[in-house]
Amino acid sequence: MTGVSAKSVAPAVTDFSPSAPIEDYLQDLYNRYRELSGGKVADYIPELSKADPNDFGIAIATVDGEVYSVGDANKTFTIQSVSKPFMYGYALEHYGRETVLKHVGVEPTGEAFNSIVLDEVANRPFNPMVNAGAIAVAELMRGESEAERNANMLALFSSLAGRPLDIDDPAEPEVTPAFWKDLTTAAVVAIALWVAAAILFG
After folding, report:
1. How is domain 80-201 classified at the architecture level of CATH?
2. All structural domains of the chain with their residue ranges
3. Which of 35, 84, 161, 175 is most buried by a 10 A CB count?
């Protein structure tokens, strides 16, 4: 698991005039692409394999708070790695760039999102968008206990969504090859950060 796994839905949408340009544009996009059937439903996490490939929705929130949607935009789904940039933003806001850079870099890896690769020079994950980096960033969530940290994380995502979210329990880590790889990555990151701290602070 990377970051938080939460059910996310588009906010309730006010009825807008069908003549509104943005609504017409969304409807046109929806009609144009809703019949596409290429690709494959992700199945490396069992819960993801339950997704209906026919679901399709689009939602847009403007900077002034208006929300427009079409199709299946109100259907819940697990956000998975969509959590990564929001957790990174939280870390930057609470600790500042220099401190966060001690935990995770900002360089591309050229590797898969779940690869176990660290920057050998700085002894840290390359960036917060790969699993190793996301695990390092998640460690920066404040809280005195796991329960408090989870609650703070959920509060963060709920505030960003503008409504209460909840943990999608079935999407939590299952004993699969993906789970063991993330567990291994977490161990590698923890050791790397411990070594880096020992070097920095003696």
Report:
1. 3-Layer(aba) Sandwich (3.40)
2. 7-77, 80-201
3. 84
**pLDDT tens series, the chain, 202 aa:** 333 334 444 444 444 454 478 899 999 999 999 999 899 998 877 878 888 999 999 999 888 888 899 999 988 888 888 899 999 999 999 999 999 999 999 988 887 777 777 777 877 888 999 888 898 899 899 999 989 998 999 999 999 888 898 887 654 555 455 554 555 555 555 555 544 444 444 4
